[in-house]
Batch of 4 targets.
Target 1
Amino acid sequence: MKKLNFFHTLILIFCFNQTAMATEKIVEGQDYIVLAHQGKTDYPSKIEVREFFSYGCSHCFALEKQLQPWLKKGLPKNVYFIRTPAAMNPTWEQSARGYYTSESLGIRQKTHIALFNEIQLQHKPLFDQKSLAKFYGQYGANLNQFNQLFNSPTISKKIEQSNQLAKLYQLTGVPSIVINGKYLVQGTKVNTAEIIDYLIEKDSQ
């Protein structure tokens, strides 16, 4: 086995210090908090990353610029990501119903960013059943099906579950990201994706 020369030793020290510095940047109580009331996840054998959001929230829209590339790079096999539209007030509830209805109709993936763009960039007030039905209709939603589902018991149950989780985690706003029912990252930070990865690694140990 070859001995490390002075140059290689310096590289190793530098890499170690860079890793330590990256870890030190993420601070409990500042970048994330440990939840007082921890929740059960959908798949206990995996680590859950759950995003609470609303389409009318500009900070949620800004967060997408980090989440999209983070998702595209691929998640570890032991991690899954789930979006939960917040329904903590009447306006948010309408948007959440639209989200879950689009999910039931199989068009959620192609409408998620499009709806954000319409509201945040085009400043269109798509916050009620009629306007949402018209929007989703442009992406293939059958209007009769959409309107039947919008206030159906199935969608209402999902709204109730969203509110129960928000209450459990004591959420006060969005965006909020809960990692494995244990850690909460609030708001949009320049290094939100890095914080998520750090907490995934922390919970994997």
Target 2
Amino acid sequence: MAHTLCLLRHARPLIESGVCYGHLDVSAEVNANAQDAQTILDRMSARGVTPDMIYTSDLQRARQLTDAIHSHFLQTPLIADPRLREMNFGCWEGHAWNDIPKAEYDSWIENFPDYQFGGMESCQQVLTRVIDFYRDMRATLEVNTQATQHSQQILCVTHAGVMRALRYYLETGNETISSASQWPATVAGFGCSETYMLE
């Protein structure tokens, strides 16, 4: 039985362009959030889609989009999971990317899996927590499938780094990463989604 997993990136955040933010809990632009929510709701309506489960990062820029969507599906279970947060950039949170020393970027690229850019979290740690979330989500999915006997529609509202990590895992099956060249280079824009069919 095939299930649908839709990964939706939060709306454009209310922060100056070029600033590093990951765990930094910034809000989304109000108008962008409303517009993105309406767009995704219109698409779901056109396809006759009602989510069976909604997961979200607990950071407010994700919760704002989630809440706008969930208000139309109040019977759908909603779970806020910190494992869906963006990567923690530690001491560089809130700093302009251009102000971060080149040596910091070089160290990150040279030891991409394990270097904690900003001193808090490595890409491997992000990948591991995202895989942990995915496995728990799949376990819940199996229970729901047995109970309902129909395909499930899962919506996750999250961040670019999480979307890259999950894409890497789903496309390769690898639980570890060894170099920056393996990390997906592109990701959906603000308020846009990526969809996967799960067997």
Target 3
Amino acid sequence: MEEILIIIKYAFLGALQGFTEPIPISSSGHLVLVQEFLGIDVAKGDFSFEVLMNFASLLAVLLIYRDDLIRLVKNGSQYIVKKDPNDKNDFLFIVYLIIGTIPAGVIGIVLEDTISSYFRGIAPIGGALLVTGIALWLIRNLKGTKGDRGLTVKDALIVGCAQAVALIPGISRSGATIVAAMGIGMKRETALRFSFLLYIPVSLGAIVLKVGDMQLGDMLIPYIVAFVMSLLLSYFSLKWFMGIMERGNLKYFAYYCFIVGPLVLVLAQFT
């Protein structure tokens, strides 16, 4: 019975992580809140769980954006060899993704432990959700004019810095990058694409850094169940979110953050 309960627990955590990863409400923040309020926990520093859930969400992003990735790699490599002007924009898009990765990569390596220790507990998550809600509300009606061909190095750095801000627990990575991208004038479609393609190198980097600490042991089955749940929910959640972005309904996530953020702040006073 205990083994079944463990599998159910990890299935729930995998589903929660998968569903919340693509949408702007912070997957890491929600995992902390669930562990705190429902007593469903993963041991602190469980790198095996972190790596597998990260990898599951990464696979979902790769599946959904596979056509874009194939085109970028093909045209970008052709531009390096042939200098065909028709391939230049895809080559530059890759360059901008690399530039956008730098802030989070550097700050993550240097300050991740400091950030985690400073923003400890659930109160900072409540505050971060409020900040996320305000940011989403401010850009809720923006449509933007910049497409893939209108991006600059400055745009890439601004979105990259926003991704670095998401190292703070409770700040959504997708939310921060999409808010920044739309705030500097990107079209919704371009902002969404740039945000999730930017997720790929950062996610790969995190996996590479932590994969050496993985220890499956007797948790193999619960981890596999969590991985499958996270993969499925990440895929369908991102597809759902793409529809929401297309319709310009980010305000609903702002409403959610305005409700949950203050509630967490109040509950934090009693824990």
Target 4
Amino acid sequence: MYNTEIVSCETILEGYLRMELRHLRYFVTVADELNFTRAALLLHTAQPALSQRIRDLENELGVQLLERTNRKVELTEAGKVFLAEARVTLAQAGRTVSRTLDAARRRDRGVTIGFVPAAEARIFPTILHQLATDLPQLNVTLRSLPTAEQEEALLADEIDVAFMRRPVHSAELASEVVLTEPLVVLLPTAHPLAKLERIAPEMLDGEAFISSDPQFSGQLYSVVEEYCTKHALHRRVIQVASNVLLNLNLVRMNLGYALLPAYVSALAGESICCRPLDREPPYLDLLMVRRANNRSAALSRLLELVRNAAIDRDTVA
């Protein structure tokens, strides 16, 4: 007999936690077939044993999930709700196993690196060749990701290390600064200020400005905001760029100036000039971030190479 009293949420949860995933699979198969004999064949088990497991599940919950007669099997209202939730639970369990196995295979076969363009320009040329020399069998996968997505990718175990901007929110992640660069002014070569060797902030007041999208630029946006506030610099925002290459292209189109990290000087081309800011320019950090519990040998070697690399970590314009 089933309890006719209302079962408390705590009691149901306790019973639910004691259930095995196989009991959920048994129930879903019976619910799909609405026939114990066919379900038993699909599950490669005996029909009496399957019936007993379903009864055990109902007793554990304290509710009836199936209406049984000699002619048919039907879901109760509670059974319909339980079926939907059981499917979700089994799907999540499958994803958990799949992602765990993927992570193990990835750790066995190599290292996955997430990065913003600064790492591509300043870090990778120094360390990737040496990493390939030290670990010739290692498969290195590079994933270009905006800062906003890198922390999520690290926590989901989709990448092993991230070269990204601040901020880093999770306490599960360890980070260290690997590069500090000043921001520089990028101007179309035809701009009157391009004739100067250095540019004071007040010279940019009221000029057409190409801003960086705060959703994708990480710390860059806030550093520019603080600098402009400090110098009472009014920016006439013409466009908002979601990535560095777009920012450069908009400058190249003579739409305005931009404030970007110094590494972009190597990407600017002949139609853009880069000028240092006069009087204490703002600086931007590049972080190397990893999961604190990731101790793979390949990742450890990569971290060591970056820490020991001959990178000018405090580039002064």
